[in-house]
Each structure stands twice: as C-alpha cells, then as structure tokens.
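Human: Here is a favour to ask of a fellow structure person. Comparing notes only helps if you start from a blank page. I am asking you to supply a protein in sequence and structure-token form. Write it directly below this note and I will take it from there.

Assistant:
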Amino acid sequence: WSFRREWFDVAKRLELLATPAAGRELLPETGPEGVKIHFGGFHGPIMAESVAAFALGWARGFFRPELRSSAWPRSELSEVVGELAGTRAVILGYGRVGRAIGDKLAALGVEVSGFTRHGLFAGGRRLPARRLTDFLANADWLVMALPSTTGTDNFLSAKLIAKLPRRAVVINVGRGNSVDERALAAALRSGRIAGAYLDVRKHEPTAAELESPGYMRELADAPNCFVMPHASAFSPRYLERCFRELKDEGLV
C-alpha cells in the first residue's frame, strides 16, 4: 500500500511496482528507468455500484427522514419519492473510475456530464469547453471522484455548493480533501442542498477519535448526511480483480 522513493536504491532488479490502490499519493508516480508503475484501475465497476445503489435508494425514498417521523408515512413519502431515470448527474473526475460510474448511471437512465482538467464529456463524447457552473444549476447528483494530488483541496467550496439546486445530493467517492466539510455541513443544516453520501472524509478517524469531545461532529451530525468508512470499493473479488487486471494488461 505504500512505497518510499529511497527503496528504489536497494531494489536493483525491480521491474514492476504495483498497488491495488487507485490513489496516486500512495506510491511514487515515476521511478528509475525500466521500472513500470501501476495503480489499480479495477475499482470503477465496484464503486459504480455503490454510487448507483445510493442514488436509487435516495430517489426511491429509502433514506428519507419521513420514514422515522411517521408510523405509516405513505402520504409523506408520496410527495418526495421520485425516479432515478431522467435525473442529471455531474461527475467531477472523469477518469477510469468516473467513467465507470457514468456508464452505470447512464444505463439507469441518468443524463451524465463528466468533467476533467482537460474538458467536458457527455453522451460518451468530448464537447466544446463549457463552464462547470452551467451544469451545476441543473444537477440532481454531484458525484466527486477527484484524486488528492492535483490541487483539489476544498474543491467543493461554499461558493460551488451555492451553484447547486436545493434538490441536489453530493456523492464523494474520490478523496476527502476535495470537500470543504464545514461548508457542506452548513449547507445540509440550512437545507441549501438535500443530502450527501460520503465514502471518504478529510481525516478518517480512529474509534478513539470518534468518541473524543474534540472530534469535528458538524458533518457527522448533519441532517441527511450518510457516511461510509471508505468502503465503496469493497468486494470479495477485490484481489481477484486486481491480479486479473495485471494479467490483462500484460504486466504479469
């Protein structure tokens, strides 16, 4: 899961440095001449299921507070339950993981727009340059699959959140550094956006930290905020997929 650059000096016969992880912060991105560096790219289909599962559950009312506030909330839910098909998703970070998420959502009838540092992609093709804010205004889902190594700190700021409609839901399966957590908590408390699903946090706490009085609970206690413990790529086939990818790409 990690490799220090100075270890190259004592690994004279090294030909391949591979990690199952997708995060570029875990290994050097370049090495000595002749050493191939490989980061896992097999997570996309697994993470896409996590995103689609939450989006479907939210659209169909599985996570609605009305379920906890009424003994038989048929009338309350009838006002808020919708369909996933026909909604719009904006995906920030449209690499291998982002594209897999987009493909899964598109198969469920979601209109997908994906943004990278290099442009906008929609309907499977690259489009002329457009401003991200033009798309946020109509987004039902803002899906974040951003890495932590390209200047993405607090990319989701209060200013960007303000561009979203109130019905929008933020889904972060990238890296926790990309979200201004205090701004997101404030937006959830005020009803500025409808909800959030966070698979990652800016700092992933230990059990002791979770119980400590100083732990930043604003986001953990915010309404309609669902937090998972960095689990969107969990699968009993995780290592099988990892080694199959190495084989399919001719690395082993």
Summary: The two ends are 18 Å apart (CA to CA).
